[in-house]
UniProtKB/TrEMBL annotation:
Residues 1-24, 197-230 are annotated as: Disordered. Pfam families: dCMP_cyt_deam_1 (PF00383). Residues 198-207 have a biased composition (Basic residues). Residues 26-148 form the CMP/dCMP-type deaminase domain. This is tRNA-specific adenosine deaminase TAD2. It comes from Chloropicon roscoffensis. Keywords: Hydrolase. It comes from the Eukaryota. InterPro entries: CMP_dCMP_dom, Cytidine_deaminase-like.
């Protein structure tokens, strides 16, 4: 009888509370745990494990997880998913749909809890919507829009507000809530490899162009010994 096989082990995020986590209230930690649950679901289906929840007046009004692999759309970050979910929920006759001021008042009472610092794109969208506060776990050193790369959170996104041309203002940020858990999820994901990511074609595209050029030049293609044609 063949030995039983076991599924690859995923190291679960630590359950301990760090000194930084203790700076937050039980309620804030509770909402971030919901965001972590979204990130864990994303991990299980092969998405980059980042998740979030939108909270207004103490209640979760929206949630999201990355869907960039599933949709083959690099803009479908969890923040965009959550915002779109809330906007779709408004009826056409709602006060928020009918009035720019009512929509602004609505989002001014909304806080975001997200496991990783929003990228510049998402920070711009959050500034445009007018959210009140963003709580995030780990920093985003490559694309962060809350200070790691760009200070969209402090500066807003200029006049991207459109309409009346008024600038979209920034928002408050609090970082470090369950950062360790967020980092562990991301590390586990990248150790395993992003198996659902589209395969890059640029290398093959340039190889094919070089082969075509060699054939036109009568060289016959092939490996020239310099590694340019593989």
């Amino acid at each position: 009888m063949a030995p039983a096989t076991t599924a690859p082990h995923r190291e679960d995020p630590p359950a301990t509370t760090s000194s930084e986590d203790s700076l937050f209230t039980d309620r804030e930690r509770g909402f971030m745990r919901l965001a972590l649950a979204e990130a864990e679901e994303a991990y299980e289906v092969g998405e980059i494990p980042v998740g979030c929840v939108l909270v207004r007046r103490g209640e979760v009004i929206g949630k999201g997880q990355n869907r960039t692999n599933e949709t083959r759309n690099g803009t479908r970050h969890c923040e965009m998913e959550a915002i779109d979910g809330v906007l779709i929920g408004f009826s056409q006759n709602s006060e928020e749909r009918q009035s720019r001021e009512a929509m602004a008042r609505f989002w001014d009472e909304v806080d975001l809890y997200v496991t990783c610092e929003p990228c510049i794109m998402c920070a711009g969208a959050l500034a445009l919507m007018g959210v009140r506060t963003v709580y995030y776990g780990c920093s985003n050193d490559k694309f962060g829009g809350c200070g790691s790369v760009h200070t969209v959170s402090a500066d807003g996104c200029g006049k991207c507000g459109g309409g009346d041309g008024s600038p979209a203002l920034g928002f408050d940020c609090r970082k470090g809530l369950f950062a360790g858990e967020a980092i562990t999820l991301l590390q586990n994901f990248y150790i395993k490899g992003n198996t659902r990511a589209p395969k890059p074609h640029r290398k093959h595209l340039w190889r094919d162009r070089r082969l075509e050029q060699a054939e036109r030049d009568g060289e016959g293609g092939g490996d020239r010994g310099d590694g340019l044609v593989e």
